[in-house]
Amino acid sequence: MSETSPRGRFVWYDLLTTDPDRAAEFYTKVAGWGTQNWPGSGAKPYTMWTTHDTPIGGVMAMAPEMQGSMPPHWIGYVAVPNVDDSAKQAESLGGKVLTQPMDIPEVGRFAVISDPQGAAIAIFTPQGGTAQPEHAPNVGEISWHELTTSDHKAAYEFYQTLFGWDKTGDFDMGDPMGVYQMYGRNNQSLGGMFTKPADMPMPPNWLYYIRVPNVDDAAERVKALGGQVLNGPMDVPGGDRIAQCLDPQGAAFAVHARAD
Questions:
Q1: Closest Cα partner for 150 from 175, 116, 180, 189?
Q2: 0.90 exceeded by the pTM?
Q3: Most exposed of 136, 183, 216, 227 (fewest Cβ within 10 Å)?
């Protein structure tokens, strides 16, 4: 997480869970990830996810006080030039700061915020380093970032102002789902967002898609390893294939394969 990344780029993904060891076993088999202990974690163990020998995120145990108030979950980190300034800007735009800006020694500075509709996301400013070249997501990387929210138009305005994201396209999913708004940066789509129907009980949230070679095979591994497939496997516009899942501890994620 030490590479400098431009504003608005997703740079890291953390899983907060009730059983990090079991989660590590699950995702290494579903996503093909490796794991690597982070020596700076101290008394609170922190294991990094790796793909092609490159760290892309980590897993840690949820604090006891969190376990009664929220389920295990993934959170993405988006690069900003200055975490403190971006946290203040988020508040000025109607968001909230859930975790105040703090330093990770020799790594950088981060904060956790929520948008005005209540979806949580992290912001991060790295400490020095050189930016890695940007590229289309490879197998084993997070390839799509999807926001389910109560007002996708207002949410887009918030993120566009905070991160500089642009609209990269949209399509009408029909009743009752409505418009799916895609967004991105530097002419590359990062994900999409939509307004959830009234009968969808979940709160606003982010869902992260892992690129895999074959969605159907990955879905079968999810079920064999104690997870659940909530939706799919199914084709989506453009010919890609996805499945939305829960891991054995209850954290939501999705798998994604690109069309040939």
A1: 116
A2: yes
A3: 136
